[in-house]
Amino acid sequence: MEGLPGEYDRVDALLVGWHADAWSYLPTYATLVREASKRSQVVVLLPDREEEDFVRFHLAAAGADMARVELLYAPLDSVWIRDYGPLVVRTRDRRLRAIDLPYDRQDDDRVPATLAARAGWSLSTPPIQMDGGHLQSDGTGRCIATDDLVVLNEELGITGEEVRAALRDYLGCRELILVPALDAEATGHVDLILYVTGPSEVLVGRYRPSQDRENGRRLDRAASILTRAGFQVTRIPMPGNQRRQVFRSYTNALAFNDVVFVPTYKRDRRFERAALRAFGRAFPGRTIIPVEADEVMEMGGAIHCITMTVAAP
What we know:
By secondary structure, this protein is an alpha/beta fold. Helix content is 30%, strand content 25%. The strands form five sheets. A four-stranded mixed sheet has the order 3-2-1-16, with helices on one face. A three-stranded mixed sheet has the order 4-5-6, with helices on one face. The chain has a three-stranded mixed sheet with strand order 7-8-9, sandwiched between helices. It is globular, with a radius of gyration of 18 Å.
């Protein structure tokens, strides 16, 4: 359908941004690129041409199919390609359009235009402030965001109704469901608390009271809101957030054709098996691939945050 594809939809390519920080979590990147290159094209954005040979060597050594990996020069400020885009939507005539989300880092903000020009996509810029991590779609015109998205825009003088109108017009979100953002978590992003697994199907995190009582209530409220909206909600455990210092999340995952990349954490394995089983049940027939994400999570995100997918037309 027209608009933003579902998180579970088939994709044609994976985009990742290789900033200098990426060397700190090379195994995470190498796993993603290796497994994705078995299934599709992978485009790795490099901010420095001098690193091309080193990156190519390490990805090849990890087992990536380098015939399907393209290293593309593009200045970057960060690795968070989920946030600076582009969000690629399908148009009515089954073409692709890139949605260029305004971003507060200058080089990152140029990436959607660079990729759109290269791929021949049309390019649109919504008149709102939003990071890609704020929003998920179930592929039927139903979108989920945290209330942080509305608060962020109201601070800029943009009303909640204007936000809904922009999401409808640019991303095909005929319905926007707002859930509470986590308390004391800096990004306010929805991909840290839930993952859409199918039409009207979603995994939602759960904190035990001993882990984080207030955020446990917020996640319970999110699950209740989505249930009332007609979603089939499955709860999934959340790793500890280290007294709100590191908000580890299993839902910061990525469904990628016949596999699902799920972040795991050496520093907290208490609920790992339960989380992987939940993803397995949500995606029957797909291979669940755990990806160690401790280092990147220390920076504030995990697998979903450092990847962007390009929809199949």
